[in-house]
Specification:
Layout (H helix, E strand, L loop, with lengths): L1 H22 L2 E2 L6 E6 L3 E8 L8 E3 L3 E5 L3 E7 L5 E5 L4 E4 L5 E7 L5 E8 L9 H7 L4 E5 L3 E8 L8 E2 L4 E5 L3 E6 L5 E6 L4 E4 L4 E6 L5 E8 L1
Parallel strand pairs: 1-4
Antiparallel strand pairs: 2-3, 3-10, 4-9, 5-8, 5-10, 6-7, 6-9, 11-12, 12-19, 13-18, 14-17, 14-19, 15-16, 15-18
């Protein structure tokens, strides 16, 4: 009898231990659905991919961040100490998340389409004061989707055959391809190269970069530029 009781207690301990282990949170870079695709002193960029019916591990966000949705999807977001909420996400939408304290949560894909998202962590505070007006002027050909004291998001759509013309980036940032296509990228010296880009391609562009972009494909190309401040 004592042996049987001991076996039950042992089994209960194993179950509790397994549950605690399953619910322990990991750092965002250790969460399998978050693939790190770019990192520098300003940002960390994650390509997030979660098929229908799957859920992420519990994971921790420690920095403010901004997301660019790459597909329509329906997700359930469950904070560690709160109620789960369901969100219907729209392809191309931009969403900002402030993280004044560490936030632990997990995400379930409760829809019928893959949850695909580019998530950009903002690692540093930066005072752009003097270049703010210049950046706004340079952004005039793009539509401002979101802006606060931490980050600016701008959208550009190039129709087939359309070109940006030669332009200079006043601010550094990450260019996120919302749609796939073929771009011709030209330098001020007249050197041109062709780039086949996929949905979710992310390219860091340093301030002072001068180039032109031309859509040489047969479908519109949508780009969202995320510029940390």
């Amino acid at each position: 009898m004592l042996q049987r009781v001991a076996e039950i207690i042992c089994l209960c301990c194993l179950v509790v231990g397994a549950t605690a282990s399953a619910q322990s949170a990991v750092a965002i870079e250790q969460e399998p659905a978050h693939r790190l695709v770019l990192q520098n002193v300003n940002v960390r960029v994650f390509d997030v991919w979660l098929p229908p019916g799957e859920e992420s591990l519990w994971h921790v966000h420690r920095h403010d961040g901004i997301s660019v949705r790459l597909a329509d999807a329906t997700i359930e977001d469950e904070p560690k100490d709160g109620q789960a909420e369901t969100f219907r996400l729209r392809r191309g939408a931009v969403a900002y998340g402030s993280t004044p304290t560490a936030r632990t949560h997990r995400v379930r894909n409760v829809g019928e389409t893959t949850f695909h998202n580019i998530y950009i962590e903002l690692l540093t505070d930066r005072d752009v004061g003097e270049d703010r007006a210049a950046a706004a002027a340079a952004a005039s050909a793009r539509r401002v989707e979101f802006e606060n004291d931490r980050v600016r998001a701008l959208r550009r759509v190039l129709a087939p055959g359309e070109s940006t013309g030669m332009h200079t980036h006043a601010s550094s940032g990450a260019a996120v391809l919302v749609t796939a296509g073929r771009l011709e990228i030209s330098s001020p010296e007249g050197v041109a190269r062709t780039s086949d880009v996929n949905t979710g391609t992310v390219q860091w562009i340093d301030s002072g970069t001068t180039h032109s972009l031309k859509n040489i494909g047969d479908a519109p190309i949508e780009i969202v530029d995320i510029e940390p401040k």
